[in-house]
Amino acid sequence: MSETAIDIAPGSEVLETSLGVLHEVFGYDDFRGPQAEIVAHVGAGGDALVLMPTGGGKSLCYQVPAIVRERAGQGLTVVVSPLIALMHDQVGALIEAGVAAAFLNSSLSSEDAQKVEKQMLRGELTLLYAAPERLTTPRFLALLDSLHERGKLGLFAIDEAHCVSQWGHDFRPEYRALVVLHERFAGVPRVALTATADDLTRADIVERLQLQGARTFISSFDRPNIRYQLVEKKDATTQLLRFIRDEHGSAAGHDAGIVYCQSRRRVEEVAAMLCDAGLTALPYHAGLDAAVRQRHQDRFLREEGLIMVATIAFGMGIDKPDVRFVAHLDMPKNIEGYYQETGRAGRDGEPANAWMAYGLQDVVNQRRMIDESPAADEFKQVLRGKLDALLTLAEASDCRRVRLLSYFGEASQPCGNCDNCLTPPELHDATESARKLLSCIYRVQQASGTAFGAGHIMDILRGKLTEKVTQYGHEKLSTFGIGADLSETQWRALLRQLIAREAVAVHDAPYNTLHLADAARDILKGQSPVWLKTLSDKAAGSSRGSRQRAARATARDDGQPLSLSERECLEALKTWRAGVAREHNLPAFVIFHDATLRAIASRKPETLADLDGIAGIGQKKREAYGADVVRVVSAFV
Question: What is the pLDDT of residue 165?
Answer without folding.
Answer: 87
